[in-house]
């Protein structure tokens, strides 16, 4: 009996529009649970996770994890198996004890930085190097693409505490939903992942528009959704996932400054005052 009091019934946001079935809805996480786990693992002792909301310019200690009744059991499982679990394992799982980066970070740094630094390739601090997902066989980019689209899709729902709704066109949101259930990738769009090789980032920027582009950031990676017909067609023509890995030191630096600036400029509330933002010095 006790368990049933908390049960929420409704139309699942992912499969509901197709099957019209009322189901038990799970308390779905906005950020995968593992993100909180790794943030907690990598923070210093006696400090807290801080949160600045989109509405008020105040920083406070992050209380509970952000959830809402959104998906049925089947769709929760689908989101985990098709992308979230892989993302956690490959991009998030840092070896805190031995100070080792996540597997994907290591692979990307070794290969991208090598290309970037090779004399004669012509890459320098102000140049952008972008590589298609097909060239990284050690990374299952299809799973990462599913995770990233899942994050952007979830951000279009209201009722995530402290978060603003991502204002995307209804047709794009519907395209995301169809893709997440097993449909085609979003026509005309690419996902871009920009790793931060020059700065350590210990934070999250919830999905929102950055210079009118859908963006979010978790730890060492920034994620973008870009309208780019040409790159999309290029990827699809060789049967590659429309996802690109990009070295862009200026873009990376600007999101770092944005993230740390948000904290510096916000009002610290009592719950946050024992924790000072202390990322590696500039
Ligand atoms: Zn469902």
Task: Give a topology summary.
Elements lengths: L1 H4 L2 E4 L4 H4 L2 E8 L3 H10 L7 E3 L5 E4 L5 E6 H20 L10 H15 L11 E4 L8 H14 L15 H11 L8 E7 L8 E7 L2 E6 L2 E7 L1 H9 L5 E5 L1 H17 L1 E2 L14
Parallel strand pairs: 4-12, 7-11
Antiparallel strand pairs: 1-2, 2-5, 3-4, 6-11, 7-10, 8-9, 9-10
Helix pairs in contact: 4-6, 6-7
Overall description:
- The protein has one domain (2-272).
- It has a six-stranded mixed β-sheet, with helices on both faces.
- The protein contains nine helices and twelve strands.
- Helices cover 37% and strands 22% of the residues.
- It is globular.
- β8 (204-210) and β9 form a beta hairpin.
- With 282 residues, the protein is α+β, with helices and mostly antiparallel strands.
- α4 (73-92) crosses α6 and α6 (141-154) crosses α7 (170-180).
- The N and C termini lie far apart (55 Å).
- The longest helix has 20 residues, at 73-92.
- Bound molecules: zinc ion.
- Zinc ion is lined by residues 12, 14-15, 71-72, 74-75.
């Amino acid at each position: 009996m006790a368990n049933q009091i908390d049960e929420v019934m409704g139309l699942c946001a992912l499969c509901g529009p197709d099957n019209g079935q009322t189901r038990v809805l799970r308390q779905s996480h906005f950020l995968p649970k593992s993100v909180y786990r790794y943030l907690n693992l990598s923070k210093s002792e006696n400090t807290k996770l801080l949160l600045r909301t989109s509405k008020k310019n105040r920083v406070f200690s992050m209380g509970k994890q952000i959830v809402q009744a959104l998906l049925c059991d089947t769709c929760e499982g689908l989101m985990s198996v098709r992308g979230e679990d892989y993302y956690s394992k490959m991009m998030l799982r840092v070896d805190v004890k031995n100070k080792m980066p996540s597997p994907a970070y290591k692979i990307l740094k070794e290969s991208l930085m090598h290309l970037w630094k090779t004399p004669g390739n012509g890459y320098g601090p102000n140049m952008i190097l972008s590589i298609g997902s097909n060239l990284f066989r050690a990374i299952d980019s299809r799973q990462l693409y599913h995770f990233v689209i899942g994050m952007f899709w979830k951000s279009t729902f209201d009722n995530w505490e402290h978060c603003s709704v991502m204002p995307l066109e209804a047709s794009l949101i519907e395209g995301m939903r169809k893709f997440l259930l097993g449909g085609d990738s979003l026509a005309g769009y690419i996902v871009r992942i920009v790793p931060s090789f020059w700065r350590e980032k210990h934070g999250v920027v919830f999905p929102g528009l950055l210079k009118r582009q859908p963006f979010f950031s978790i730890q060492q990676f920034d994620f973008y959704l870009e309208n780019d017909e040409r790159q999309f067609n290029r990827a699809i023509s060789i049967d590659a996932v429309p996802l690109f890995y990009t070295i862009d030191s200026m873009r990376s630096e600007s999101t770092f400054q944005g993230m740390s600036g948000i904290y510096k400029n916000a009002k610290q509330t009592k719950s946050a005052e024992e924790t000072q933002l202390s990322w590696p010095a500039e």
